[in-house]
Records
---
Amino acid sequence: MQITKITDGFAVSPQLAYDHMQKLADAGYKTIINNRPDGEDTAQPLSKALEKSAKKAGLSYHHIPFKPGRFTPDDQQKFKAVLRQAAQDTGPILAFCRTGMRARAIHKSVTNRPGFFARLFGR
């Protein structure tokens, strides 16, 4: 399991497996966000089964699926709500997808300041 720390309270990972959930709980994580739609790959575990494993390990689990590069404003609002809710917990959040890139992208979209041109031109 490869975990990339983005901030003190947030990390991303490629696809997780059932047996990772207890290890994540033991490492101090409190919240898991799955950004991968079910059925992208035949070997991919279903979100409902991952959720069951996460809950058994004492983790909060959220499924906010979207295709790479195609998150919607609704996806962003759901993601932001989970971040706000999880901020009250005492441990970090781990979001995952196939490679970790879309989890990183949606996090950046809801937490970072606008880019240079948006600040320059007020957009």
---
Amino acid sequence: MQLSTKARYATRAMIELAFNYGKGPMQLKEIARRQDISEKYLEQVLFPLRTKGYIYTQKGSRGGYSLSMAPEEITLYDIIQTVEGSLAPVACVDNAGACNRVDICVTRDVWSRLKNIVIQELKSINLADLVVEQERKKKESGSNIMYQI
């Protein structure tokens, strides 16, 4: 299983917004610059997160993007599922009709357990956790390097 660039960029942008939580909106170009992401692509990545209500936009000269709730309330699962959709490694996990071997296939059971484990792990991590971890890594490395997820 491999997450798309969209999922990785969405997570990085959301962490950036979590660092800025409570300090006012961040302009798209600033998020894009800090995370080395194309503004056009970042706007597409953030659209489903805005539609789902995790972020909001404010128009005007002091406008930009902000988290719509506290970083503790948004999990990594919320972000990934919003931009990726299902986390099932194979289609038959979510759609039994995708395969005529569903009733006898032992690997489907493995793939289903794998999906559940991934979801459980992603739900156990919120943006506040990632902000704390990023701060720790910055201190340990002694640098101000931008992060990659």
---
Amino acid sequence: MLNIKQKEKIIKSYQDHEKDTGSASVQVAVTTEEIERLALHLKKNPKDNHSRRGLLKMVAKRKSLLDYLSKNNERKYNSLIRKLGLKK
């Protein structure tokens, strides 16, 4: 789980305007960071199936947000993918 300062830092780097905290690009960036942290946890604790289920749900949510972005704003989608280092 991200603490408040880390989450604010991610939001500031991906927001479209000053009060933007919930746009699809911000949600994808925050979810990606949480996925990376949870993946590290699961490498250390391979039998933690409860957390593995949460990870799979996060990956599915990120995919649906990325699909939404690719349909509605192709330019923002491509720049976000490049910034986060994700595959298409």
---
Amino acid sequence: MKSLTTFREVIAPVYDRPRPERLLAGNPQRATYSHFRAPGGDLDCGVWACEPGAWRIAFGPGKDEFFCVIAGRLRIADAAGRASEFGPGDACVIPAGFVGSFEVLEAVRKYYVVLERPAGNTV
């Protein structure tokens, strides 16, 4: 029987840091609380938290992410330098193939939904 996945459950996070070759500022610790992963691993949903810092990002051709900020502030800039800032309640989609930078201005927590598909199956 299928059951709901709630984000109220306490789960252990997975910690990491940006790869050194991508770092732009600081060396922030990131915590990922993956609450739901679909069979096959193409859909992942949970909560992500991070300390202040900045790094370059490059999304694969089949990876899209939706997020909604719970607390803190972050800035995302595209490869041309156009930047958008997000705070509590703000939401965004980072599309497949996006290249730019991700900067945590104030310690942040966000809900995330990541969808990964083979590159030829994007919408």
